[in-house]
Amino acid sequence: MTTHFQTVYTTYYSYLKSVAYHMLGSVSDAEDVVQELFLDVHDKLDRIEHVKTYLTRATTNRCLNILQSARKKREVYPGTWLPEPSSEVWQQPNQLVEQRESLSYAFMIVLEQLEPLERAIIVMREAYDYPYAEIAQLLDKSEANCRKIYSRAKKKLDPELLKTPVSQGQHASLVEQFVTAFQRGDSRTLVRLLTDTSILVSDGGGKVSTAINPIYGRERVVSFLVGVSAKRYTHLTYKMTILNGQPAVVFYEKEKPVSLLMLQMESQGSYFQHVYFIINPDKIRSGHY
Predict the structure, then answer these.
(1) What CA–CA distance (Å, rounded) separates 70 from 25?
(2) Which residues lie across from 266 on neighbouring strands?
(3) Quick one: CA dihedral 43, 46, 47, 52, positive or negative?
(4) Which of 11, 69, 82, 143 has the fewest CB atoms within 10 Å of its CB?
């Protein structure tokens, strides 16, 4: 491994993995994309003039190819496919002051509504502040076309889902109240913490038994929570953590992580609108919790 290659790898690996993760919604797939890219460019890196642009373009194109095939796989996925939460804090090269932390889990959810090219442009604009001229170069599109696609994609995204209505400390306090009530089967507290229109989505990937379809409405969500807690969660330990830059819960069985809980607040910051359980073991084993 040459010194130049090592320098480029160290400088850009985290950034490229961040791009791939926000494109794919999978930490393990993002790692594979970036590792394979560096293997492919190892012998020709010295001949690449604009390294960051080249690597970003190659990463984005590889992700677009994966997304095209992934759409067909997710159509037959058992239940709802949820993005894999990430414990990493994504950083751009050179650790600039203005760099952003990982996009919220709510944003990862809404990205699933987009076509692959729409997703690429939204990610480049929203996560990395790329100007349209550079996005056009990365995707081999005209600047006008990129603007049009961005505008169309933004109309698909609910701005209410992307707001952060309370501080992280307040959010964490409410999450802890929720998980305590959940493990105790305290339906009264769960009712107080949810909205009339709350939605629960659980992703077991066909490998762990869970609700296949989303559950709508406070009463039905609470009923499900109380039932599943008694069957599966009362004996588990849990730890509060930060995933995708927001408070989250990891449940453990004999020190092994077996379930992730993500809670999204409604716009006023008083109640939880969305409850996400990720229990597909493939989406838990690659995390560091």
Answers:
(1) 11
(2) none
(3) positive
(4) 69
Q: Which helix (H) or strand (E) holds 156?
A: helix 143-156
Token pair in block for residue 167: 């501080």
Q: What is the dihedral of CA 264, 265, 271, 274, to 10 degrees?
A: -30
| Signed CA dihedral, 235, 237, 240, 245: sign only | negative
Answer for the pair 257, 284: CB distance below 8 angstroms, yes or no: yes
Length of the chain: 289
Place of tokens 């008694």: 230
- The residues spanned by each domain of the chain are 3-162, 168-283
* Alpha-carbon gap, residue 47 to 9, rounded angstroms: 15
Q: Which two tokens stand for residue 120?
A: 């690429």
DSSP string, 176-207: HHHHHHHHHT-HHHHHHHEEEEEEEEEE-TTT
List, for residues 56-113, the tens digit of each pLDDT value. Answer: 999 999 999 999 888 777 778 889 999 999 987 655 444 333 334 346 898 899 899 8
3-state secondary structure of 287: coil
Q: Using the 8-state DSSP alphabet, how is residue 160 labeled?
A: G
Which CATH number is associated with domain 168-283? Answer: 3.10.450.50
Residue 43 main-chain phi, psi, to 5 deg: -85, -10
Ramachandran angles phi, psi of 261, nearest 5°: -120, 120
Sheet of 194-203: strands edge to edge? 215-216, 194-203, 272-278, 256-265, 246-253, 237-243
Enter the tokens of residue 191.
């009712």
